[in-house]
Design a protein that fits this description.
The structure is a single chain. Helix 2 (78-86) packs across helix 4. 23% of the residues are buried. With 279 residues, the protein is α/β, with parallel strands linked by helices. A 7-stranded mixed β-sheet has the order 1-2-5-3-4-6-7. The protein has 8 helices and 7 strands. It is 52% helix and 15% strand.
Length: 279
């Protein structure tokens, strides 16, 4: 027989069990709420960090855009800077001209060479001694120019008089004569070693000459600079192949404008330290 006191305590036991269940459910809900709160806070922090990173990226892009605009502005003004630097210091317009759009400097061959010769004349050497330091100083005037100018191309050009093969050979040897003299002990200027790493020699022959007449203006040596097109979208010069090795102590890369068979025919007549390629 049950004890009466046991019957009296039964409701209390059931209430205690119900309370325990409710407390457990309450603890579980509180734990879930805390978990969701932590997850919410974590997601908010991550979103905040992502937003911060995105803002930093936007600032970087804007900075690069402003730098690009500065580069564009600087290089658009470079041709005029060259004109101003050379004007009245190395001769007048009947000796050299500067293209106002590209900055190409064209030197008339009459001051550099005798007719059909690739040997520099004394007055040609004197001109280069005055011209090269000024020209180099402009190109290396600031880090923008020094970084973005990938090459300085020295091009020999002839008129259309004579055979194309002789004109091509003559133009190349004249460009080489100018380059060799620039880096000889007779010409000294700051940034000489840096310029030497950028120089590329090209023989253009009569490719750009007037085919209908023997024009004196077509006989020239041209200095042109080339930008790093992958970094700076300024279309001022045509693209040229890269040199195989550094100019100093290595292979000089000579650019020919015509076909491969003509290159093979001319390799035998070139000095052994020259390699050749097509434009």
């Amino acid at each position: 027989m049950r004890n009466i006191s046991d019957l009296d305590n039964a409701p209390e036991i059931e209430e205690e069990e119900d309370s325990s269940v409710l407390l457990s459910i309450g603890d579980l809900m509180s734990g879930l709420l805390m978990l969701f709160a932590l997850l919410f806070i974590t997601v908010q922090i991550q979103l905040s960090e992502k937003a911060k990173m995105l803002d930093e990226k936007i600032l970087q892009v804007e900075k690069l855009r402003q730098e690009l605009q500065q580069y564009q502005k600087a290089f658009e003004g470079l041709p005029q800077i060259i004109v101003n630097a050379l004007e009245g210091k190395v001769g007048d317009k009947d000796i050299f001209t500067v293209d106002p759009g590209t900055g190409d400097v064209s030197i008339r061959d009459r001051i550099l060479f005798d007719n059909n010769s690739s040997v520099l004349k004394p007055e040609g050497k004197k001109f280069l001694q005055a011209f090269i330091p000024i020209y180099t100083q402009v190109l290396f005037a600031n880090k923008q120019f020094e970084k973005q100018i990938s090459r300085v191309v020295i091009e020999g050009h002839t008129s259309s008089a004579g055979s194309d093969s002789k004109n091509l050979e003559l133009s190349l040897r004249r460009a080489l004569a100018v380059s060799n003299y620039m880096f000889s002990n007779e010409v000294n200027f700051p940034k000489k070693a840096e310029l030497q790493q950028k120089v590329l020699v090209s023989g253009r022959g009569e490719l750009d000459a007037n085919p209908t007449q023997n024009a004196a203006g077509d006989r020239k040596v041209v200095f042109r600079f080339q930008f790093r097109r992958e970094n700076l979208n300024v279309d001022v010069n045509r693209q040229l192949p890269s040199p195989e090795k550094n100019f100093t102590g290595g292979t000089r890369h000579v650019i020919y404008p015509w076909n491969q068979s003509q290159i093979e025919n001319r390799k035998s007549s070139l000095p052994p330290n020259l390699s050749v390629g097509l434009i």
